[in-house]
Design goal:
Largest sheet of chain B: 8 strands, mixed
Oligomer: heterodimer
CATH class of chain A: Alpha Beta
Distance between the termini of chain A: 12 Å
Helix content of chain A: 25-40%
Structural class of chain B: alpha/beta
Number of helices of chain A: 5
CATH class of the largest domain in chain B: Mainly Alpha
CATH architecture of chain A: 3-Layer(aba) Sandwich
Order of helices and strands of chain A: EEEHHEEEEHHH
Structural class of chain A: alpha/beta
Strand order of the largest sheet of chain B: 4-1-7-6-5-8-9-10
Strand content of chain B: 5-15%
Shape of chain A: globular
CATH topology of the largest domain in chain B: Amino acid/polyamine transporter I
CATH topology of chain A: Mannitol-specific EII, Chain A
Number of helices of chain B: 27
């Protein structure tokens, strides 16, 4: 399923949506979401993708004060924005001690034209995932409900 | 913002905590017209006393020499422009320091300080003389047989004026250029009226006798030269001596270099315009009015009655009814009193500025740079200058001529050292970019040999040497004062040696006054421009982006907010382990120097925040800025920086009905990444 996020088409589906209540490290969570995306994209090397996302995570933080974390990477050979999301009702801590309650991981195509859309997506996600929205997601009964709320 | 997000922002770990505005530095800039007015309030004020003093020194030929000196000021102004193009914080110290070395720079500073210490008293006493002249004229016209003692009254008046400006300077004068502008506008009106009326008077008289050209030097005015008969064989020696006695009219030119740092962009272009205004005004006002006065007032009357208030004498000798002449005299006195009082103020500001500049180089101990707890001014320096000025006033007992005799030493020797330095720097700092060069140069190899500059330097050296012989009071007082100040610098530097070494190694640090405000609206309330830019700063050595932006701003309508997001508890999002801790003073000193260099005001802010992008976004949104400008991070690169910024922008846009848009620019040498969102 493709969801429109501020006019940017982002591919997100039920298989890439998770509610995780058990303890999990940030790195394992990132890996889980990368795998979920890569399962649909056999032409992409998942190790390369994971390395790219983790490398970006070593840069400036992608976690916001609202509890939203947006790991991301720009990947060659992609021609659409691919995403996976995890809702963490109990939260996990990032390296700065901030609580992550939702992780929205996305991959974007490389190329200068896509970069402005990449930035736009980051801005619109940061704007859309208000604290109340994150609380709402945390109370969702299943992944389908989460997806329904995110797909707007 | 909706209620939920208001609550979120109140408890936000990234929320800006503590907003500090840097207020110490003079970061507003003035127009060329205002800059010219500031200079003229000092330089132009000599019109009120130079002629009278010169008349007492060498007789009725004085107007020719005052006029010649005013013409010469045009050449000196050009030399000053070249000096300013080399050093934004012009002033005499850095120029001579670079050209002739530190000892010469100390001597030059001592000389110019001597000038400032005398400018205050001569100006305030002259103002008193004009005022008492008016009071006595009024009493005479109304046949009241009572006269005030001119010198006694002038001394008391001078003390009152000096104390007034001492207090004003301790409090810190916010922007005196506005007042200077009004004073000069009023003086121009008086000047025009005097000229027109003087022409009518000459036409009415039907005869015009020009003053003689040959100076009548007396025993007093040739000083020690009385014992040097061989000097008589030098043809033009009398002319040189007369010029030496007229050179006091040049006092105040240094103010141009002092005011340069305050001039708005484009600085050198505006400095040239200011210099033209200064030159024309001084030539017409000081030179022209002195000349007209010499034509209208009989020489014996000048000598007996108007040597201390020449322009009042001009007003009273015009053709017309006494009442009108008295009104004219009153107008001249008002112009004189305000302009001369302005010169007192400028002398205190100038001396304070020079001493501060010397202190920046670690030559003065911290005692001198102590900042007043309430007013933020360097009160110890101001106290010292004003005490010296008060001592001069009391010692002179209100006699302008006595101070006039001591005058000119500082002016001339500071010129000698500064002009020599400018010439030497043509060879020493050949590569340094000059936006202006004194004309008359011969290009040889890679050098521009400053023929014009050399001739001017030789001229001032000749005048300084001749004055050394003829002006005994100036030589004795000047050398004594210069030695005293030189020793003060020397001893202070020794006491400050450790600190001076640190200053030498670290570079100069501006003393910063920080004012904490409650919210961002308060911090930016003074901004008036229609375009606003927020420039993020962190690394004192990475300010290319700020320099690039300031260089490119062509209008006055753009406000530049410079923001440093200071990490709380030494951590912040995006800060790598082992990141260099920012030296705030070094950072803002460099910012101030860049702002001064380009003549564009900036609003420097410090925000305590763990998240620089949040702080930047909060400021940009509060200021409704059109652009955010950042330097590139050496650790993360431009793309990561942009990503974090747009995330912060999005997060802070939550719940807002009117969403603003902005362009983010990341600049580094020759490259730029930008994004409008």
């Amino acid at each position: 399923m493709a969801t429109q996020n501020n006019s940017i088409p982002v591919i997100l589906n039920k298989k890439r949506t998770f509610i995780i209540k058990e303890k999990i490290s940030k790195q394992d969570l990132v890996e889980k979401l990368v795998n979920a995306i890569c399962d649909d994209l056999p032409e992409i090397d998942r190790n390369d993708v994971l390395a790219a996302v983790l490398k970006r995570e070593q840069g400036i933080s992608t976690t916001l004060d609202t509890g939203l974390s947006i790991p991301h990477a720009r990947i060659e050979d992609l021609n659409a924005f691919e995403a996976a999301v995890a809702v963490l009702p109990n939260g996990i801590s990032d390296e700065y001690g901030l609580k992550i309650k939702v992780m929205f991981l996305f991959l974007s195509p490389t190329g200068q034209n896509y970069f402005s859309q990449h930035l736009k997506l980051l801005a619109s996600l940061a704007e859309k995932f208000k604290a109340s929205f994150i609380t709402e997601l945390a109370s969702c009964a299943d992944e389908e409900e989460v997806l329904g709320k995110i797909s707007f | 913002m909706d209620k939920e997000n208001t609550i979120r922002m109140q408890n936000n770990p990234f929320k800006a905590k503590g907003i500090i505005v840097i207020t110490t530095a003079m970061l507003t800039f003035i127009t060329f017209w205002k800059a010219a007015a500031v200079v003229l309030c000092d330089f132009g004020s000599s019109a009120f006393y130079a002629g009278g003093i010169a008349m007492r020194a060498f007789g009725p030929a004085f107007p020719w020499y005052i006029l010649a000196v005013m013409l010469f000021s045009g050449l000196l102004l050009m030399m000053y422009i070249e000096a300013c193009s080399l050093f934004t914080r012009g002033g005499i110290f850095p120029v001579v320091n670079a050209g002739l070395g530190e000892n010469a720079a100390k001597a030059a500073t001592a000389a110019i300080l001597f000038d400032f210490v005398l400018t205050g008293p001569i100006s305030s006493i002259t103002a008193g003389q004009y005022l008492v002249g008016l009071i006595n004229s009024t009493l005479e016209i109304f046949k009241i047989h009572f006269t005030l003692a001119p010198n006694g009254f002038s001394m008391v008046f001078a003390l009152a004026v000096t104390l007034y400006f001492w207090y004003q300077n301790i409090k810190g004068i916010e922007d005196s250029s506005e007042k200077s502008e009004k004073i000069i506008r009023f003086s121009i009106v008086i000047c025009v009226v005097l000229f027109v009326w003087a022409i009518i008077t000459i036409l009415q008289r039907g005869t015009l006798t020009l003053p003689p050209f040959r100076p009548q030097l007396n025993k007093e005015s040739i000083g020690w030269a009385v014992n040097m008969p061989f000097l008589e064989k030098i043809g033009c020696i009398g002319v040189l001596m007369a010029l030496g006695h007229s050179v006091l009219a040049l006092s105040g030119l240094e103010t141009l270099a002092q005011v340069y740092r305050e001039i708005e962009y484009p600085k050198i272009k505006n400095l040239k315009k200011a210099a033209w205004i200064v030159f024309i005004f001084a030539f017409v006002f000081t030179g022209g009015l002195t000349f007209i006065a010499a034509i209208i007032i009989p020489p014996d009357l000048i000598a007996s009655r108007y040597s201390d208030n020449l322009l009042s004498g001009l007003a009273m000798q015009l053709w017309g009814p006494n009442v009108l002449k008295l009104i004219m005299q009153a107008a001249v006195v008002i112009a004189g009193v305000v302009m001369l009082s302005g010169a007192v103020n400028t002398s205190i500001i100038g001396a304070n500025g020079i001493m501060n500049r010397v202190a920046e180089d670690g030559i003065l101990t911290d005692w001198f740079r102590k900042i007043h707890k309430t007013h933020g001014t360097t009160y110890n320096i101001i106290n010292m200058i004003c005490l010296l000025q008060i001592a001069v006033i009391i010692l002179s007992r209100g006699d302008t001529y006595l101070i006039g005799e001591a005058y000119a030493f500082g002016v001339l020797w500071s010129f000698v050292l500064e002009m020599s330095s400018i010439v030497i720097l043509r060879f020493k700092n050949r590569e340094q970019k000059r936006e202006f060069m004194m004309p008359f140069n011969i290009k040889f190899d890679h050098y521009y040999i400053p023929i014009g500059g050399i001739l001017i330097t030789l001229a001032v050296i000749a005048l300084a040497l001749i004055n050394l012989i003829t002006k005994k009071t100036a030589t004795i007082a000047g050398i004594s004062f210069a030695v005293f100040i030189f020793l003060l610098f020397h001893i202070s530097e020794k006491l400050n040696a450790k600190k001076a070494n640190v200053i030498f190694e670290e570079g100069h640090r501006e003393k910063l006054n920080k004012t904490e405000v409650n919210n961002l609206d308060k911090a930016i309330e003074g901004l008036e421009g229609s375009k606003r830019l927020v420039v993020a700063v962190k690394d004192p050595d990475n300010l290319y982006h700020l320099e690039h932006i300031l260089q490119g701003i062509g209008s006055d309508d753009t406000d530049v907010i410079v923001l440093y997001a200071k990490p709380i508890d030494n951590w912040s999002v995006g800060k790598t382990t082992g990141s260099k801790k920012t030296d705030e003073n070094e950072l803002f000193t460099n910012i101030i120097l860049i702002a001064e260099k380009y003549g564009h005001p900036v609003l420097p802010l410090i925000i305590n925040s763990n998240e620089p992008s949040y702080a930047l976004t909060q400021v940009a949104q509060a200021a409704k800025a059109q652009e955010i400008i950042m330097g590139v991070s050496g650790t993360y690169g431009a793309n990561d920086q942009l990503e974090r910024l747009v995330m912060a922008w999005g997060a802070l846009n939550q719940g807002k009905e009117n969403k603003s848009s902005i362009t983010a620019r990341i600049l580094w040498e020759g490259r730029e990444v930008s994004y409008k969102f």
